[in-house]
């Protein structure tokens, strides 16, 4: 990984913002991911994220913290927050922005336990593919203190396969439709392609049941997105 995501965050943090990140997937064209959005404060967050922050309690782990927006908000509110991200640049930026407890670490390497675990901005993306969901959920469950909760958002991206006549062009023999190849570039450089998973609520709920987690729909967004609470 070249960590172009982290490099872009560092540029923005250091006042060198000239370009946005460019993303695309195997089923969608290039799109801009505006860097200011990755530095959003509470008032600019989508309602699902605001709701997740309102439900957070006790000791908190923010998985894939990026520039640390959610953790910074909760830290200011006096919560005990730990943030992790595999991007060195993201962790550096989070520290520069004042986050006290933030580490370069992958979710599967985390071992402490928490009252609340947050995975936000398509939190299921980190699971990468459907076949890994049980492994990640089992691990997340092992990081929960008694009565702990996991708050994560995702989307049902079936709409991305809809054609103009309202039909769907999904290949029934292909993998689960929410499994995407994700491409990212910044300032003309291309990141190593990644896998990124979007999970519809019913599939997430079913996966939770198989590992002994309860999965509740907290809130739906405007565009097939939702916030789930796992306990
Ligand atoms: C879409 S960004 C979201 C960033 C942040 N949560 C936000 O809402 O602005 C996903 C983040 O997850 C991180 N990430 C991906 N896989 C991870 C893993 N296995 N463990 C921890 N972080 C991971 C990426 O580096 C990236 O910063």
Description:
With 231 residues, the protein is an alpha/beta fold. Helix content is 24%, strand content 30%. The chain has helices at residues 4-13, 47-55, 69-76, 88-96, 133-142, 201-210; strands at 21-25, 28-33, 59-63, 80-85, 102-104, 114-119, 144-155, 179-186, 189-190, 194-197, 215-220, 225-230. The strands form two sheets. Strands 5-4-3-6-7-12-11 form a seven-stranded mixed β-sheet, with helices on both faces. Strands 1, 2, 8, 9 and 10 form a five-stranded antiparallel β-sheet that branches. α1 runs parallel beside α4. The longest helix has 10 residues, at 4-13. It is globular, with a radius of gyration of 17 Å. The mean pLDDT is 96. The site of S-adenosylmethionine (SAM) has 17 residues, from β4.
Bound molecule types: S-adenosylmethionine
Q: Tell me about the largest β-sheet.
A: 7 strands, mixed
- For the biggest β-sheet, the strand order reads 5-4-3-6-7-12-11
Strand content: 25-35%
Give the quaternary arrangement of the chains. Answer: single chain
Indicate the percent of residues in helices.
10-25%
Distance between the termini: 33 Å
Which class do the helix and strand fractions yield? alpha/beta
Model regions low in confidence, pLDDT < 50 over at least 5 residues: none
